[in-house]
Amino acid sequence: GESVGLHLPTLSVQEGDNSIINCAYSNSASDYFIWYKQESGKGPQFIIDIRSNMDKRQGQRVTVLLNKTVKHLSLQIAATQPGDSAVYFCADISGGYQKVTFGTGTKLQVIP
Amino acid sequence: GAVVSQHPSRVICKSGTSVKIECRSLDFQATTMFWYRQFPKQSLMLMATSNEGSKATYEQGVEKDKFLINHASLTLSTLTVTSAHPEDSSFYICSAILPQGASYEQYFGPGTRLTVT
Known about the structure:
The complex is a heterodimer of chains A (about 110) and B (about 120).
Chain A: E1 10-14, E2 19-24, E3 32-38, E4 45-51, E5 56-58, E6 62-67, E7 72-77, E8 86-94, E9 99-102, E10 106-111
Parallel strand pairs in A: 1-10
Antiparallel strand pairs in A: 2-7, 3-4, 3-8, 5-6, 6-7, 8-9, 8-10
Chain B: E1 4-7, E2 10-13, E3 19-25, E4 32-38, E5 44-51, E6 57-58, E7 67-73, E8 76-81, E9 90-100, E10 103-108, E11 112-116
Parallel strand pairs in B: 2-11
Antiparallel strand pairs in B: 1-3, 3-8, 4-5, 4-9, 5-6, 7-8, 9-10, 9-11
């Protein structure tokens, strides 16, 4: 994805609802994708990854969907909790895992 | 899981001085570490790839003489911001790759907040 962002888009979700965060990437050679969560003043934390030969992967309360045709990635969070409030970045990896490109990021606000 | 630490977590320095930031992989060896900078409300921008025992590879637009990177051991990489100016104020984050079977997870440090006055 393009790591250029002047303002983070914000997604506001009611506690308990499901959240869907989207990401577009541009490098068709990317073969590995990761979603990260970043809380204020901290480094990114790994959430879930997916390889390009898959279109869906599930984790605990999270699901990542990959659509290579339109170069689109999404992160679904089930039963969103206040602790899920953070900025979420997608990253696409290419070049033998040496080139990581971060997306713009989406700020998730969970309303109690 | 693997842990990456950074030191210091926050630093304030005067314009014209140099600042060194350390990145350590605490429980694994990292032949490759990455340095990023992040401005408020923006994404992470890769600055350089730090390879143990060799010169770092800098991204386009990043001044290698200003941002000195040294990766002298398998657990330590340092970033020195030389002759810092207020525009260098940013959040600097390092990461290290830990190959784990079929995965290739990148672990991030907690970041260093640099403020240049």
